[in-house]
Amino acid sequence: MAQTIGIGTTVAAVALAAFGFGSFQDTAPDGPPPAMPASLQAPAPASLSAPESILPARVAATALAPLPDLDRPAPVSRFGLACGLSIEAEPRPAASVALRIADPCRPEMRVEIAHEGLAVSVTTDLTGHAELLLPALADPAEIAVRLPGGDGQLVRVPVPDLDEYDRVALAWTGETPLALHAREGGADYGEAGHVWQGSPGAPSDALRGSGGWLARLGDGLGTAPLMAQIYTIQHGALPGGGLVRLSVSADGCGGPAEAATLRPRPDGGVARVDLSFALPACDGTADRTVLQNLVGDLRIAAN
User: 170 and 201, same structural domain?
Assistant: First the structure.
């Protein structure tokens, strides 16, 4: 326990210690030294453990937050054109539809166009574009554009003048070269009025009512190409009405061939007839076969 010493005694003890007659410690009682008051004690040393962060909370949060997503430019083709499928479809005279198909990042790609049971295939060019003038078989014309991998779109285009024309389509699959022939007003093969791929006419002929025209669809490229030819003639194009005799020719020989004809019906539907025939043997006697009775003739109404 600490001992209280009077002032006089303390002075004397200090004096004796100064002259060597004793020590202050010798005068203290036995036991531990007196405790220092709490107010005079030094504070405890701070913990030396590392803090979780030496940055202010706001700075640390900013430094550790993920970077915001940046808007990346849309992919483009090697010609600088935006990627992705786009289809434009517009009505055209002579009951036709103009199709423009583009996918710039997939050039030289097979595209299939389907309409009312008719299908054709074309290949896009080096810039991923393809164009097609399709004589419609129904009003409105619903046209499906299909790409490899299942991509595609469906477009719907009004065809208000469809009922002004007679039209028949021949469609087939494969490399067998078929051809649709229309002989107007009693014309023979090779004469004026014989409309076929060797003398197809033009849409302007049908518009003027001076005769028919033949559209050839499909480029014949790739495996199992889808091909079609469509003959169109305006009502009243033949004086007093008349008959258009239709036939099919096939180049080549050997093996079976299949095709189909499609015609718009007055009720808005499309009549389809499937055709199957055998090509002659490859004995060198003929390189073209004309099939006269596969396709029914057209009776053209007078205006």
Answer: yes
